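Before relying on records like the one below, remember that each one covers exactly one chain. Contacts with other chains, cofactors or solvent are not represented anywhere in the record.
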Amino acid sequence: MRGMRSPRRVRLSTLLIGLNAGLVLLAVICVSIAGVRLLRRLADEQALARVRLAGANALQAVERSARDVGVSAHLLGERPTVGRLLREGDAQGLAAFLERFRQTSRLSGCAVLVQGRAVAVGGRSFPWMEIARASRGGSSALVAVADRLVLGATSPLVASPDATVVTVLVLDDAFAQALARQAGQPVEILPVAGRALWEEGPRSRLREAALEVERGAAGKLADVYLDVRTLRGARGGAVALLETALPTAPVAASLAQLIQVLLAISLAVVAVATASGWWISRRLTGPVGALTSAAARIGRGDFATPVPRVAGKELGVLAGTLEASRRQLLRLTSELRQRQAEGEAVLTGISEGVFSVDRDRKIRYLNPPAARLLGVAPEAALGRFCGDVLQPVEGAGGVRPCDDQCPILHARFRGATRATERLRSADGSERVVVITSAPPSEELQFQVFSDETEQEAARRLRDAVLAHVSHEFKTPLAAQHASLELLRERLAGLDESAGGDEPTRALLRAVERGGLRLTQLVDNLLESARIEAGHASLRHGSVALDEVVEEAVEMTAPLIEQRGQTLEVDLPYPLPEVEGDAPRLTQVFVNLLANAQKYAPAGSAIRIGGEVRPEVVLLWVEDEGPGLPAGAGRSLFERFLRAPGREEAEPEQSGMGLGLWIVQSIVERHRGTVEARREGSGTRVRVTLPRRPPAARTGEKGTAA
């Protein structure tokens, strides 16, 4: 008994996972089999419906062609030219006229018969009397002539009662191809007279069934879905079969894709079932797993997470022992961590960069300010030569300071040194830094350096703060706008029931205008920060200028209404499309309208006009304000600069001088231009944008089609 091996025990978690996954897998297999059968049946039904529809379209096309042949016969019979040429006996002229008529009517042939004899023929030669007998009565008919099928029609010649005109259209391969293009599926026309040549098989049986049923027959064969319809002659007998085919390969491929998707879903369901089984097993085997994880954390040096309490005597004692060990280790390492944290706080809290090197001048430590200043990640700089990380500018003769003027080497022999270096940034710009190097301490040597480019640092700090503050304004402004919309709707309801409250509505409009001005200011600040930071990219797409102007007018309407001004829009219709970013162009016209509203007198008119030229579109905003002072010119579009003399026009509404600067930046990024000039007593700001190339418009239409 001692030598017998104990049987291998199955873990509870494994048993639970296997049972759960097995049951789900069995259910998925049953559902998948039923689903595949249903999908195959639905695919066959849909394919048969498609081929029946294509067959019906092809049959209608044949009937239309028959009507066209009949109409052509009537038109030819009513032509006075035919009667005149026939009376004059001009057979050659009559044949030439018939040939032109045949080509114009897209017929295979046409002829004039006198007492059963063809006196003139246009196109190919046919048994005209046989066709005339089959189609007498003025209607077109399908006739089998030798080995060809033709649509023929007759009509009496109006100018000569004893003459008859005959028109013919051959149902050849070209006609079948035209039918296929109209029906959307391959089409074949088979004469019934040649049925002896049909091969035995499912297709032949389907054709025989179609001859017996008036509406034809359809079915699925080995490689094709086939719809067969009968074409009947003048006497009602079947003359030909019209076959429309749909290959089974595309349908089978689509069905295979659906089956693959179903299989993927089944595998995903099994995976979810396995995961749920695993979760259940973890819930049941949790206590042991929790202690195992706690021991692993302690082994990795994680002493802050307490060991969880577990039920049971033995496991409880084990958990208590692990917790006591954790507390002892935490107490022993807390002092070391505190000292390390103090040193780390000093190094990371200062604004100067600090780095240390070994005896080979390879970087062993780099604090975050130094990493930010150098534009590298601390982990990427460790182990590299300090000169390769700092990138000092080469001196005369292309010699780097690391070779003969390194402050680190000087400090090893002279004590602490201080040197001014010029470093090259990753973007190619240069910055001036002051490096202070300390003597070596054991194996390390520390250096402190600071950036002396104060103006650049101040500008970046200003732009960063501006962008963050502006961005933080967007959320409360959006909430305020939504609240105002809701309040306006409620006031409208109160107006209908209680007679209205004009002071409240006026107060609401005032708050809305204030919010609109603040939103415009924040948008301009954000756009200014993006432009300065180089992140003002455009999304290129088709832009309808009508919608851009309409949205800008809607956004600035409360501001214009505040001062009793009127807005006159006179634009060519329709405006051509341009290539660009619609929200940015909307911001352009919002700024222009807000600028005009500020400087135009109360009760005056603001006009929006435009002109379409072959290559560009011109749009302008015009006001009746004090106009531009002499010498303003391009200075009007500079940042934080407002035109001299215009500040006094509306001092209570003066802005920051960003609006027109942003307008110029956006328009120039759209490859356009903007200019301001005096127009009478007011000011006109004109925007010129290039029209979208015709090739781009044609490409978009083709893609949409």
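The longest helix spans residues 12-77.
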